[in-house]
Amino acid sequence: MSYSEKITVRDIMKTTFSTIDGDATVSAALLLMKSSETSTIIVNRRHDHDEFGLITSSDIARQVMAKNRAPDRVNVYEIMETPVICVRPEMDIRLCARLFANYNLVRAPVIENDKIIGMISPNTLVLDGLYKIYS
Questions:
Q1: Which alpha helices (H) appear in 8-120, and where do they start and end?
Q2: Whole-number Å distance between alpha carbons of 93 and 81
């Protein structure tokens, strides 16, 4: 495959991801992270006019642990990132990498027809996407 061929986000995105409601506790999010072996969870929209959010282990470290807050007394919506930048599955991985660099992103949901169909990260872009280009 040559570098001029287009590889899309759909070609390399991870299709397994975890979701949680914003009113769940951080303790519930931690249990989900551990059982799913992930450090990032998508926070569901509350209604059709809301936006998706993300909660990461870094958010929990900075906003719960470092502030000595009890995880069972803090709700996900209090510390989640929202709105989050989402990408289309048809996006070229090189443009997606540029988006990640410009906005210092660690993860982005992949949205199609207003539904999340996957997740993309810099690791996936490099280890799966760039590898495909040169293999």
A1: 9-12, 26-36, 57-60, 76-79, 93-103
A2: 23
Q: Residue 34: inside a domain, yes or no? A: yes
CATH number assigned to the domain comprising residue 56: 3.10.580.10
Instruction: Return the amino acid letter for 134.
Output: Y
User: Is the bond preceding residue 122 a cis peptide, omega within 30 degrees?
Assistant: no
For residue 1, being part of any structural domain is answered with no
pLDDT in tens, 14-50: 999 999 999 999 999 999 999 999 999 999 999 989 9
Query: Rounded distance, CA 135 to CA 132, Å?
Result: 5
Q: Name the percent of the chain in helix, strand, coil, to the closest 5.
A: 40, 20, 40
Q: Which of 122, 121, 52, 110 is nearest to 80 (CA)?
A: 52
